[in-house]
Design brief:
Largest sheet: 4 strands, antiparallel
Order of helices and strands: EEEHEEHEHHH
Strand content: 15-25%
Radius of gyration: 18 Å
Structural class: alpha+beta
Shape: globular
Number of strands: 6
Helix content: 25-40%
Amino acid sequence: MIQQGKTFMGDTYSQLFYHIVFAVRNRESLITPAIKDDLYKYISGVITNQKQKLFIINGMPDHVHILINCQPNMNLSNCVRDIKEHSTKFINEKNVLKGKFYWQAGFGAFSVSKNDVSMIINYIKNQEEHHKKTSFREEYLKFLKENEIDYKEEYLFDFELK
């Protein structure tokens, strides 16, 4: 729309949902019940500060799942980098673990249609039940295959404890 020599852009409307998955370095089970709630609340605050909307966060002692609704100008890699960087610092400053806490490099991000949001919320909510039958490795490979994402074994998360 042009008015009095100025250009005005119409409003931007979007609905961008991402299911994000990342793991603790070396898949160590460091997200204990003692720190889980505080960690998830802290990550929620990081996401809110980035002006994104968190739907749900949950996971297992060795990895987390997050479902967010994003603004179209959000850089997903920067968002996840900030979540991991700030939450690592938060956990390490609390001094609740014997050693240092770190996330593994990389992450998985899968787009979600509005029609599938409630299904993904239920999936994330029921992580403990789900992982009684499926390992994280099986789960992650299934996500990659279902989403037809090419991958190389050497760049996947390190699934073996060192």
